[in-house]
Amino acid sequence: YLKGWRIGRREVLELVPFVVIGAAMGMLTRWYEYHIVGAGKQDWSLSIGERMLVAGRALAFYVMKLLMPINLSFNYTRWQLDIGDPAQWSWVLGVGAVGLLSWWKRSAWGRGPFVAFAFFSVTLAPALSFFKIYYMSYSFVADHFQYLASIGIIALIIGSVAWGFDRWIKFGHIAEWMKPIPGFLVLVVLAALTWK
What we know:
single chain, mainly alpha, 7 helices, 62% helix, globular
């Protein structure tokens, strides 16, 4: 889809084994979380509205922590939910608007932003409060939940920077040898933050 290829019956059928294995592993994880970890003993009284509030804010939280990895914590404070507070719904509306905009502008921007958003959201879905996870009795978010999902956002950023550099090189604004510099600078900054 990202490369503009047609997705037909054959491509969908090729995914069936992966969907079956993924569903089986998801059911195993759910059973383990419920019976071994302790989620079954946890009081889980979030309404669907509260779960949407958690999901919207958590998605935004993960993107912000990915873009600015500062004040990281093993255990973030669990925020208070109020479905009557319009400010809390702004997270849900903002995330929804980004998703819709990336879909709507896919002809102009390419499919990359939508694919990155969809990959990020779908991969994080099991950790967005729609399933009973014991950890959520302490916090609605944890950095390790987004490790795999972050690939979508990171690939979008890298692809966008590379596209921009290719255009600048094409029009003679910069030299080809300068292309690796942003990646090197990001590594230096992240290494410094990791050391700190």
